[in-house]
Amino acid sequence: MLDRISLDGDQLIFDTRSLDIESVYEFLKTYGCQSPESLDLIGRDLFLLDSSAWNEGYVPFFANAEAMWHTIRTRSKKPEYIHIIGVDENQYVSISRLIDLYFLIREILATLCHNNGDESQILKYIFYSSKESFLTKLEVSYLMECDELIAIEVDAEGIKHAQKMHAAVMADEDVHCEERRHVMREALTDFLKDKKDCNVAVVMASISIFYKKYNERYKVYVSKFSVNKILTEIENDCVNFLGKVQDAIMSQQTKAFAIPGSIVAAGAILKPATTAWDYLVIVVGLVISTWMITSLNNNVIAHIKLLAEEFQRSTKKYDDIVVGVEEIQLKIEGSRQKLSTSSSSAETKLKVLTRVCWLILVLVNLILLKRFLDN
């Protein structure tokens, strides 16, 4: 039925000849006409330009592209229906693509901007950028003529880029919403800072460049976020490994208390000991105790070395990080140094403890030997 709409002077007329008027009314209702019965019907010609009959006063039929553009350009959202008389399919696809892009960018800017201007700054989005305590104000106008719109060249890839940015900026249910908007706002101000004219037409004409700037900045942000997370993981791993080393040392120190106990026990047993078998039992007990402590100390030293190797392997997964690699490597090196120092100290203490055990064993055996010879 759209081909029945024509321009007569300054009027748009729907030719209802050979059509049931009720079906015409139903057709117009699908295009947003809330009361088609109130439209003037003269003969078989139905006059469409009575705004009171349409939802929000919007008539979706236009005599030409310029009339359409002057009607919709200040609306906050793209109208659901737009029909331009006498425009072929290729022209309509091109215009529709530009209109889609225009409203996508409008919604992006409206979400990102700090305010929409005032009475002296109509049809503008206002941005503020602060760097090194210097505040910069950026005004982006969305007022343009129809000829400017038609002159913009944009391909399907540009529309996809705009749709991706629109989806990114409008998604407000995840924790990175405000960060994404901040990154896109910074990318926009950086993109427009050297432009002579700051308006929507400039953004539309270079939408893929704007998308590239945003994408690069967002990748850096994501990488930085990952770096901070990695640094926390490294710190937690380091603390965990150091805790295990400390636990191992404390455990062996507790077992080392058996050495003074064995000496006291040996002294108590020596008093009634008179035969070689009595002395042999004491020596065997001391040898077994010393051997057990030495074996446990060696096992703990091996365990500490294994922990150091495990920490080294756990940090290998960060080798492929590009952004923040120096910061990560410094953190890894610092943690490795801490673990190495703690491991070396623990190993030294445990070796000293082992030597003390054997020294005590030798001394006690010498005492036993002298006592046995004296008897």
What is the element layout, followed by pairings?
Elements: E1 5-8, E2 11-15, H1 21-30, E3 41-42, E4 45-47, E5 61-62, H2 65-72, E6 83-84, H3 89-112, E7 124-131, E8 134-141, H4 146-151, H5 156-170, H6 177-192, H7 200-205, H8 207-256, H9 258-270, H10 276-314, H11 325-374
Parallel strand pairs: 5-6
Antiparallel strand pairs: 1-2, 2-4, 3-4, 7-8
Helix pairs in contact: 3-5, 5-6, 5-8, 6-8, 8-10, 8-11, 9-10, 9-11, 10-11
Low-confidence stretches: none
User: How do the strands line up in the largest sheet?
Assistant: 1-2-4-3
Kindly name the structural category: alpha+beta
CATH architecture of the largest domain: Up-down Bundle
Strand content: 5-15%
Short synopsis of the structure:
The chain is an alpha+beta fold and 375 residues long.
Structure description:
The chain is of the alpha+beta class and 375 residues long. It has 3 domains: 2-88, no CATH class; 108-205, no CATH class; 227-374, Glutathione S-transferase Yfyf (Class Pi), Chain A, domain 2. It is built from 11 helices and 8 strands. The radius of gyration is 42 Å and the shape is rod-shaped. The relative contact order is 0.06. The mean pLDDT is 77. The chain crosses the membrane at residues 276-296, 352-373.
